[in-house]
Design goal:
This protein has 230 residues and is mainly alpha-helical. The protein has ten helices and no strands. Helix 1 packs across helix 2. The longest helix has 37 residues. It is elongated. The chain starts with a helix and ends with a helix.
């Protein structure tokens, strides 16, 4: 009987912990939604509590401060952006096609989820004056660039000459260009497709340069196929 009671207590503790994890995740998702909709200047703990449909005091049970909650939001954005890139290249075998698929996937993600990119833009700017947010924002950008670098190395590693631009630097530039295109779309209120099409042209121009540098003929027809609008 004592064993049964102890087991019940363990099961009960596990269930409560799971409920707590789920509730915490819901609050983080609510905070991200409010940030994406209203921006950091208009986002308050009260607004986040309303979005999460919980009492404002419950937020402080899970997060000691607004900064702690914002750090958790950055972690959630990190997961979403990296997952979106990984999903876009999944199922594509040819390395250069994978890189182009990633760029097309990023364009689609910007178009379908502008609120995520607004939240990222706001938090990045906020981190310039809030030391608590600086390292989480840097870590997000590093991890996103690393996911892109995997495809950059796969694509450029097969070219006759590719050391003109180190893969890590190119991946970081692509990540920055994606964020810039997303921000431009938010500010201009327009379609970011031209920005991403231009980005593909610049990336594939490096492929042409790699062939020319090695004294070889670039695969013009193949590159033309990859440049076709989605």
């Amino acid at each position: 009987m004592r064993h049964a009671t102890a087991a019940a207590k363990v099961d009960g503790a596990g269930a409560r912990a799971e409920i707590g994890r789920r509730r915490r995740a819901e609050i983080v998702a609510a905070a991200a939604a409010v940030l994406g909709r209203l921006g950091s200047a208009e986002t308050s703990m009260k607004e986040i509590a309303a979005e999460a449909e919980v009492a404002p005091g419950l937020l402080h049970y899970y997060f000691e401060s607004k900064d702690e909650l914002l750090v958790a939001v950055i972690g959630e954005l990190d997961r979403q952006l990296t997952d979106a890139w990984t999903s876009a290249v999944g199922g594509v075998d040819e390395p250069l096609e994978r890189l182009v698929a990633g760029l097309d996937g990023a364009a689609d993600h910007c178009a379908r989820h502008p609120e995520i990119w607004r939240a990222l833009s706001d938090l990045s700017l906020l981190s310039l004056s809030d030391p608590t947010l600086v390292e989480p924002c840097r870590a997000l950008r590093r991890r996103y660039a690393v996911a892109i670098e995997v495809e950059v190395r796969g694509a450029l590693g097969r070219l006759p000459a590719y050391t003109l631009v180190p893969p890590r630097d190119l991946a970081a530039a692509i990540a920055a260009a994606i964020a810039g295109a997303a921000t431009a779309g938010l500010v201009e209120g327009g379609d970011t497709t031209p920005h991403f099409q231009a980005l593909k042209v610049m990336v594939l121009a490096l492929v042409v340069t790699a062939y020319v540098t090695a004294g070889q003929e670039p695969p013009v027809a193949r590159l033309g196929q990859l440049l076709r609008p989605r």
